[in-house]
Design a protein that fits this description.
inorganic pyrophosphatase (n-terminal core), Diaminopimelate Epimerase, Chain A, domain 1, 2 domains, 6-stranded parallel β-sheet, 12 strands, globular
Amino acid sequence: MNTSEIKEIKVLLSTPKKIVIIPHKNPDGDAIGSTLALHHYLSGLGHHSTVITPNDYPKFLKWIPGENSIVKYDNDNDLAVSKIKEADIIFTLDFNHFSRTGNMENVLIQTDTTFIMIDHHQQPDDYATYTYSDVGMSSTCQMIYHFIEKLGDLDKINADIATCIYVGIMTDTGSFRFRSTTSTTHRVISDLIDRGADNTRIHENIYDTNSYSRLQLQGVALKNLKVLPEYKTAYITLSQKELDDHNFKKGDTEGFVNMGLSLEGIIFALIFIENKGENIIKISLRSKGDFSVNEFSRNHFEGGGHHNAAGGKSNLSIKETVEKFISILPSYKNALNS
């Protein structure tokens, strides 16, 4: 996003506007954190701002400042559609293609307004009037911080905005351990703490809220963990029955894929989760080093994301999906062992 575009956006935001802010379907910490941070910022400027999520999100995100103001498209469709149709500006955050919004896709395609995309995923689409894309950035939340900085408004970041941004950076960097965590990321975090983000409380609210049934489900995931040492690969499967038997709630499997990646000698880890409601197998992929799970997922499982973290899906059964995956691995043996 160049200087002239920033100037144009400043002009757009110089008078009160009706603004809608949208994250991707099944929003995570970065998606909710970035949308709410931008919502607080824009509301502070006098705009009529509304965050609309395609669907619900995990319980561990439902304490974030402003969360109770979010409109969920699948629960309150009429209100959501009217807000979108009336919007002077629509910000799309943490995704770069309308298909990532699920059932909202057609509504967004048919909406003629100013779109502003802020996102850090690869291969952005060209639907937006203004695009701020940086695949090297740790998170969309860090991009929101820099967006506010570009607008000359860092002084407007209060404790609520700081908290929202901190959540997204922390969760999308795996608590600051992923390669995308740079010295700039840490400087941003330092400033957020100075502006009121309570890092201890945030960490406790996100990570220290396990239910007994979730821990039991984690045990099942560990029991199902399989290792393919010749490919430096580990994978986990979870069937719909296993989810149902452990009172599965949205977000309960968050981070499970990293258990495989934590094994010594493993550089590629996946989890295959059966979703009978959508009739798909949801796949999360993680890697270390130079192996691109973004390319792997795009090539084989209708997905994508980042170099070391991606998602995908399969319309086969869970057994057939795993068999397909294993049949693909030999062609990546050199890459996985290099």
